[in-house]
Amino acid sequence: MLPACERFGLGQLPYFPLASGLLTGKYQRGVAAPADGRIAAWHMDAMLSDANFDKVDAITAFASERGLSLLQVALGGLASRPAIASVIAGATSPEQVAANVEAGLWSPTAEDRAALALALI
């Protein structure tokens, strides 16, 4: 959808850009989800799947190789897309708001985008 939006000059406002907390490191493979998590019970199994954790592992490795946080890659990478009008990420504390703002400042290079795309195949 993003390529079509970019082609026609349309903007998108992503819903759940942190995948209900999956891209924050809050959830771990093989560990019971915390009771205060944002993933609703009705779709917890789908969100906490091995396939999704494989993607998180790939993004985490990409981030680590560049000295970035998972949050920076998730929010900064998304915010830098031309078709993204804005990124709204939930926060439960002032510290999370500050971290989200800081994360949104990272902008990937074309090489970063290509490497990340390869990592997620």
UniProtKB/TrEMBL annotation:
<dbReference type="Pfam" id="PF00248">
    <property type="entry name" value="Aldo_ket_red"/>
</dbReference>
<feature type="domain" description="NADP-dependent oxidoreductase">
    <location>
        <begin position="1"/>
        <end position="104"/>
    </location>
</feature>
<dbReference type="InterPro" id="IPR036812">
    <property type="entry name" value="NAD(P)_OxRdtase_dom_sf"/>
</dbReference>
<protein>
    <submittedName>
        <fullName>Unannotated protein</fullName>
    </submittedName>
</protein>
<keyword id="KW-0560">Oxidoreductase</keyword>
<dbReference type="InterPro" id="IPR023210">
    <property type="entry name" value="NADP_OxRdtase_dom"/>
</dbReference>
<dbReference type="InterPro" id="IPR050523">
    <property type="entry name" value="AKR_Detox_Biosynth"/>
</dbReference>
<dbReference type="GO" id="GO:0016491">
    <property type="term" value="F:oxidoreductase activity"/>
</dbReference>
<dbReference type="GO" id="GO:0005829">
    <property type="term" value="C:cytosol"/>
</dbReference>
